[in-house]
Amino acid sequence: MILRTIKVVAIGALISGLAACNSSDDDPLPVPPPVAEPEPLPQLSAAVGAAFSGNCNDLTANLSELENTEITSSSEVAAGELTVAGNDIAAHCLVTGNMHQRVSSVDGNAYAIGFEMRLPIDWNGRFYHQANGGIDGRASTAIGGGGPGGLTNALYQGFAVLSSDAGHSGSLGPTFGVDPIARLDYGYTAVEKLTPMAKQLISLAYGKGPDRSYFGGCSNGGRHTFNTFARMPNEYDGYLAGAPGFRLPYAAIANIFGAQQYHSVATDPDDLSTGFTEDERGMVAAAALVKCDDLDGVNDGQIHAFEACQEIFSLDDVPTCIGDRDGSCLSAAQKTAIAPIFSGAVTSTGEEFYAPFPFDTGIATGGYAQWEFDIPTTRDTGAVAFIWGVPVADPATFDDTDFGLNGSIDDMITSVESTDDIYTEAANSFMIPPNNGEELSAVRERGAKIMVYHGMSDPIFSPLDTVNWYKNLSANNNDDATDFARLYMIPGMGHCSGGPAVDQVDLLTPLVAWVENGTAPDNLVATARGAGNVGGENGDVPADWSVDRSRPLCQYPLVAHYDSNSSGDVELAASFSCQ
Q: In the predicted model, what is the mean pLDDT of residues 215-233?
């Protein structure tokens, strides 16, 4: 006790001496300034509805003042005439038109930004800009998806909804990219041109503009969403992005890389699927389940703890064939060829240029097979060659299969990063959001909100790429972006939907509540789409699942864990919690 007292006295004397060196006897020790509390985010007000003004059939004449816009039709759609996922859509006005019509000086083709807009007679005061998928090319029915599985949609809820072809006709296929303006419209400028027009049209129809504006889509629509919140942070209040291919050119080249890997071990060179057959994919998925299924506390056919699984599972856990391939093993050559597809596509020098893909249960599905074995040589090749590549390919001599299976990956990467006198903005600029959409202070500080969802078995856009995006976004926001952006990973789900997954959830309703009421989207529940589901049956739902199995939809990095202290029904979300 005496020794401890001496130490305390000595330390106290040392502190006093140090203080004396830096201040007079009359000055107190400096007090560190208090840590500033972060400024509270603005709370946006709720939208207020309005009735349609005038006669829908006469609206065309009233829209003549829209700049650079031709309205081609305006007509009323009666209640119930349009049905979506078993729900009758209320009466609304359907307006179609074109913006910025022109003839290209490069390829001689006619171009315009074609659109349709659906304006409810009983409007809720909100605008939803629906971004479409693929390479666009048509204005899909403007309903405004509310999340995977089709449980609800914006039009059904009373939003005014816009859809467009992003500036080109689908009849051109990927060759629309020969025109440099069409390239940029597809990348991001069509949204910049459509947004003010749509808001003005709403003002003319209802006597006021939208109180709240939302933007959303899946796949390329998710990419459009990422581009919009990065480039136009003041135009929209809420964003709903699914399977966001925000690095689409590199994802497409990675898919071509995968096709070349499969081709190297295919038993039939004309059928890439023989490089990794359905039985072999099912065997790998089953092996992953053996290693990872119970990481979430229960064996239920789903891998919730996907990051932990990637740490402990690899193709080394799969049997290596000693004799012929029979679906119960992979040959050594297959493992060598397939492993880089999952670990991340690389250049000829071994430099990774796209994200890894997780081992997940959906790799055995038909949807997975289409993206892995068909799309690389039927869609990705044309996009790289015509929409993104510089120099552009010659449509008269282009061979997509030869380009995909024999083309240089290094040259493809160079082409999407190049410019010339005609194509003055590179694809990795006009397709990808600035800073990968990871610096979003303007979105956060105005009170806007972002919700993103991604299936863990997505074969074309890596869910781990989206996880990396969110980690970087969090790092740019003091390691916590949850006050304005949340990410939801869905085990087993493929590209936008499908797969052995609970792939149906309404995300639009909680997004609106978050934006307009400040109610954070907690306690979300996703369900399976078994037989008789109103949103459409998912044929990938395993036979031993309940047709409406449910799980908590956890915000990343939390995952669903079974409550081991209970005997809860494994089919019900109530038996799980986000941990």
A: 98
> Rounded mean pLDDT of the chain?
93
Q: For residues 127 and 559, what is the distance between their CA atoms, to the nearest angstrom? A: 33
Cα 124 to the center of its chain, rounded Å? 26
**409-416 and 248-263 are packed helices; what angle lies between their axes, rounded to 10 degrees?**
170
524: Cβ contacts below 8 Å, ≥ 6 apart: 488, 505, 507, 510, 552, 553
Q: Enumerate the H helices of 399-462 as residue ranges.
A: 400-406, 409-416, 427-430, 441-445
Q: What is the pLDDT of residues 469-478, one digit of tens each?
A: 999 999 999 9
The DSSP letter of residue 3 is H
Task: With 0.90 as the threshold, say if the pTM is over it.
Answer: yes
**Encoded tokens for 265:** 């071990």
Domain ranges of the chain: 50-210, 250-424, 434-578
- Provide the 3-class DSSP secondary structure of residue 341: helix
Give Cα separations from 510 to 124, 162, 507 (angstroms): 16, 21, 6
Q: Which two tokens stand for residue 52?
A: 């349609």
Instruction: Tell me how far apart the alpha carbons of residues 349 and 338 are, in angstroms, rounded to a whole number.
Output: 18
CA distances from residue 453 to 222, 305, 533 in whole angstroms, order as listed: 9, 16, 21
Burial of 149 (0-12, 13-18, 19+ CB in 10 A): buried
Yes or no: say if 484 and 553 are a contact pair by the CB < 8 Å rule.
Answer: no
What DSSP string describes 295-337?
GGTS-SS----HHHHHHH--GGGSPBPSSS--SSSB-HHHHHH
